[in-house]
Design a protein that fits this description.
The complex is a heterodimer of chains A (394) and B (187). Chain A is 47% helix and 12% strand. Chain A has 394 residues and is α+β, with helices and mostly antiparallel strands. The radius of gyration of chain A is 22 Å and the shape is globular. In chain B, the strands form three sheets. Chain B has a three-stranded mixed sheet. A three-stranded antiparallel sheet of chain B has the order 2-5-7. In chain B, a hairpin with a 5-residue loop joins strand 3 and strand 4. The chains are: A alpha+beta (394), B alpha+beta (187). Chains A and B meet through helix 4, helix 7, helix 8 and helix 9 of A and helix 1 and helix 3 of B.
């Protein structure tokens, strides 16, 4: 007999978690234990801390505490030139430096009115989708690690991730802190044989996904730990401003690649996977399906990449002075809507620099998803949110 | 059947384990100190300064314009400009850095200094085994440790160095043609 999702107790269906928590948190029900999970606990994906109030194993309250990795990113960016902020954006979500670069470059391009040449647009799409592949693969690895599958899925995911990082290294010189995009284009052209190598990797990626699927799909422990756990209702997801795979897992069809069509995403055929239940399993599946769609985008982009310049002829590296004004640029980063808001006063550094980090905003519903669940579920639910503390704390 | 999924997953693990004996692509770990993977040409670790002629003091391309110092995002470069001038590669008298320090404990290897340098004087090194037990002096690199000959640059980034040499030669030819043309016009 297969363990069905329906056979798992779904507390959320009878009453909302908040009601459930309030019902049983009354004083006559006994004492609550306050436990500080983190900041240096391997399951918290960095230096994140959760103050949980427990009744036995059940979570009654959960208060996220962050700021341990605060590096004053926004203030520093207001003091240095526009160019000098690019390497700092690498360090926001340090798994996805390419998409961070892109979001920032997109905003400055809007502000300064720079155009991006065709070839650079293709390179941006290719690097961003490769970033999405490696982010989602390692996220699934980490999620499984949190569930106790110590090692195997994570190592398989990292094996594939290494290949993508090798590509990034030969392109930009660094594996993770790529510092690759520039305003109006990209920094260097693709090295010889790069497209062929990328095509070989993308061609082999479905094999890895199939292997991953055989390894995990239908695994009873995975099903039991994820199905019906950490349900995020559709309305709450919209109201809380959740974006990215987490929002789509709750059944909301919202992908900025489709909505905004920034860059040249309008040219590629891809589907946006949608979940139904909004539980951890759906969030996990979102990532698996998105990887398949990314492979499709990559195949199209690598096939039709044109020649030509890689940076706008008007773009100057140093001394960029956009005229006074403001701009908000956003992209669909692997974690959600990554936006940059810049106000220029006409000088060489931004007057105001603000990051809209998807990780932080997706974390705001953590308590709602965790109430009434066990401590072990909290770890899995946090894992499914996909946070990187560099981005949460900035 | 309960447990079927787990058995299937185990079979996949076994396939990877036994496959690693026959298929090289399943065995991805490089045994680092003994086995070293080649570094791609674009690799960047920390910056170094290029000098052209035999003499590392006189041949230094850096003219202490301090652009890299101003643009460096973590501000890890410290330059003191000289008071006298020395001739550069084109024979034009230029200032030179009396002090050029890079605090590599602060440097984040972003390559911005290389991109903004108009004189092709600072480039990225690829050496990465740099640990030291002196956390202050050992990580504050002075001018003599930073300067490397152009041949070294050619040995680590051959394509890029060839391009830079070509661009510099063009510049020099132009600079030499100018006074000659000017003298011809005056006559």
């Amino acid at each position: 007999m297969m363990l069905e999702a329906a056979s798992i107790e779904r507390t959320t269906e009878e009453r909302t978690p908040v009601e459930a928590a309030e019902l049983s948190a009354s004083p006559e029900n006994g004492q609550l234990l306050e436990l500080s999970m983190g900041p240096h606990h391997p399951s918290t994906h960095g230096v994140f801390r959760m103050n949980v109030q427990l009744e036995g194993e059940r979570v009654m309250r959960l208060k996220p505490v962050f700021g341990y990795l605060h590096r004053n990113h926004e203030q520093i960016a207001e003091k240095v030139s526009y160019l000098a902020s690019i390497p700092y954006t690498d360090r926001l979500d340090y798994l996805c430096s390419m998409t961070n670069n892109w979001a920032y470059a997109l905003t400055v391009e809007k502000l300064a009115g720079l155009a991006v040449p065709e070839r650079a647009e293709y390179i941006r799409v290719i690097t961003a989708e490769l970033t999405r592949l490696q982010n989602h693969a390692s996220l699934i690895g980490f999620l499984l690690q949190d569930m106790g599958a110590s090692g195997t899925p994570l190592m398989y995911a990292f094996r594939e991730r290494e290949k993508i990082l090798d590509l990034f290294e030969s392109l930009s010189g660094a594996r993770m802190m790529c510092n690759y995009m520039r305003f109006g284009g990209v920094r260097v052209d693709l090295p010889p044989q790069w497209v062929e190598r990328a095509q070989a990797l993308v061609g082999g990626f479905p094999r890895f996904l199939d292997e991953f699927e055989r390894l995990l799909m239908g695994n009873e422990i995975l099903m039991g730990r994820t199905q019906g756990v950490g349900v995020l209702p559709r309305e709450l997801a919209i109201n809380a401003g959740i974006t990215g795979p987490m929002l789509r897992a709750s059944g909301v069809n919202y992908d900025i690649r489709k909505v905004d069509g920034y860059g040249i995403y309008g040219r590629f055929k891809f589907r946006v996977p949608l979940g139904e239940h909004g539980d951890v399993y759906d969030r996990y599946m979102m990532r698996v399906l998105e990887m398949r769609e990314s492979v499709g985008i990559l195949k199209q982009a690598l096939g039709e990449i044109p020649g030509g310049p890689i940076i706008d002829a008007k773009a100057r590296l140093r001394g960029l002075r956009p005229k006074a004004g403001e701009a908000y640029g956003r992209i669909e980063s692997p974690k959600g809507e990554l936006g940059f808001f810049l106000i220029s006063d006409g000088s060489t550094n931004p007057y105001r620099y603000r990051v809209r980090p998807p990780s932080l905003i997706n974390l705001t519903v953590l308590e709602d998803m965790c109430l009434g669940r066990n401590v072990a579920d909290v770890v899995v639910i946090l894992g499914s949110v996909d946070i990187v503390l560099g981005e949460v704390d900035r | 059947m309960l447990g079927e999924g787990i058995v299937k997953g185990m079979a996949e693990t076994a396939r990877n384990f036994f496959g690693s004996f026959v298929d090289r692509s399943r065995l991805t770990t490089a045994q680092f100190p003994e086995e070293r993977l080649p570094q791609p040409e674009a690799t960047r670790v920390f910056p170094f300064l290029i000098y052209d002629t035999e003499d590392r003091e006189k041949g230094l391309r850096c003219v202490a314009c301090k652009i890299c110092e101003a643009e460096c995002p973590p501000k890890c470069i410290y330059i003191e400009k000289s008071t006298d001038k020395k001739p550069d590669y084109a024979g034009k008298p230029q200032f030179y850095p009396q002090v050029f320090d890079i605090d590599v404990s602060v440097c984040m290897s972003c390559q911005i200094c290389v991109e903004v340098c108009p004189f092709e004087a600072i480039k990225m090194d690829t050496a990465f085994e740099l640990s030291t037990d002196d956390r202050f002096g050992g990580l504050l690199w002075q001018k003599d440790r930073l300067s490397r000959p152009n041949e070294y640059y050619h040995s680590i980034h051959p394509t890029e160095a060839a391009e830079v040499d070509r661009a510099l030669a063009e510049k020099k030819a132009k600079a030499e043609a100018k006074p000659a043309a000017g003298a011809a016009a005056a006559r």
